[in-house]
Amino acid sequence: MKNDKKVNTSGPTVSGMFSPNRDNLLDPITDTAMDFERCVQCGYCRSVCRVYNATYNEMDYAGGRMRILKSLARKEIKFDKDGIIDSIFRCMLCGNCAEVCPVEIDTVAVFQKFRKDAIKIGVLPKRLGQMNDAIMEKKNPFMEDESRFRWVKDCPEGKRALERGEELFKQIRSGDPSSVVPRKVAYFIGCTAGYRNTELAIASSKILEKLGIDFIMMPEEQCCGSVLYRTGLEDNTIGLIHHNTDLIRESGVTDVVFSCSGCYSTLALEYPRILKEELGFNLYHLVEYIPMMLKEKGLKVKHPKYTKENPLVVTYHDPCHLGRYMKKYDEPRELLAMMEGIKLVEMKHIKEMSHCCGAGGGVKALYGDIAGDIARDRLDETQRCVIQLRSDRMKEAEETDADYMVSACVFCKNNLSQAAKEDEAALEVMDIIEILQHYTFYK
Ligand code: SF4
Ligand code: SF4
User: How confident is the model at residue 15 (pLDDT cuts 50, 70, 90)?
Assistant: First the structure.
């Protein structure tokens, strides 16, 4: 009877190769990547899976994928690449299934291990291979040769922060410790804000300066490795992890702030796990760092136009990497509450049960800006599925009658904005930071 979990396994049967039984419920399986053995095929995870809701394919929800894993482990089926590859990659790693799993399987860890194993035996989608090569060679997934800080020419606040960073590293490397002017805060901009969504890097820099923070940006920052890690190419992230960690440690800052939820969760969760040690500095997403600073400095924020009587109505989309991964549900809502003239109307699916925007798990990256013909790619079906997923999330937001759907993740913004444009939706999608940059900070 030891280690049994309270699970009702006598409910409606779900077609599967393995009936629920006591063995399935027993701990310990010490390796979370082997957690698929504990799946009781209850099927609770099926209705929450947005991919399954778009494809109705039994291989596309967590329980179905667990069945495949069990069958592979028992050598009952062969690793048929054509049959299984879609199931491996047609998952956003959003973690919604883990929220409802009664035996508490860490589904995301299991699926990431599945991807890693699949890639080891040669299943590497062409797009992922191209992206991997780009990151290995250029240290960004966009094949960009130039600096990720080109946008500072249009942003004096960013320019000053980059210059402070350049100066700091020069002082440190001069060998004269007395010349070093220590800095407390670094802004890790990430590849997407640096190369594609520069509006976010600009807005973040403006806000940090408005808060009176002498932050730096690190000229030698490289891709955080998130996309590689999520898509099963974890072994190739090691160099990036060491580079970025060493760089931040060398800078001597105590706080690193992020506008990208993907970079944030990767540094917070994966870096210490892979390095097997504490990082030694604090990590904050801006939506939690800004309320902290506003309170510390006794500041309020007001908008030139929006007031309590004439509010901007917004609805908030919880990004998976900030919400389910980092459990930051209240912080962005607290920031919205601090912004005068913002009225938050909640959607039906929020916080732990928020729907994914459809861009996670490297799925969107597979169809991004990387060159190459994917018309006949085996993952074409996934693209159609992603379009459906993001449209569903937009419809839910439109039902709230909001003016804007706001979020705190550049991938959510891009994917949802694209859907909004394609559907000619009345609703616009923005990052909270972009709205906040137009506010005045006062005592
Ligand atoms: S992680 Fe998300 S997309 Fe993947 S199986 Fe679970 S609910 Fe579905
Ligand atoms: S909810 Fe958990 S136990 Fe039930 S089918 Fe899904 S993964 Fe298996």
Answer: very low
Give the CA-trace dihedral at 54, 57, 59, 60, to 10 degrees. 0
d(CA 338, ligand 1 centre) in Å: 33
Q: How far apart are CA 391 and CA 429, in angstroms?
A: 13
Most confident of 14-23, 86-95, 240-249: 240-249
- In the block, tokens 């994966």 appear at 270
CA distance 64 to 177: 58
Instruction: From 84, 101, 123, give the residue that closes a domain.
Output: 123
Instruction: Return the ligand 2 atom nearest residue 7 CA.
Output: 3
Q: With respect to residue 13, please indicate whether it lies within any of the assigned structural domains.
A: no
Segment 61-96, tens digit of pLDDT? 999 999 999 988 888 888 765 568 878 888 889 999
Distance between Cα 295 and ligand 1 center (Å): 37
- What is the domain-level CATH number for residue 232? 3.40.50.1860
| Domains in the chain, number | 3
Atom of ligand 2 nearest to the CA of 44: 1
Q: Are residues 281 and 198 in the same domain?
A: yes
pTM: 0.87
Q: 317 and 211 share a domain?
A: no
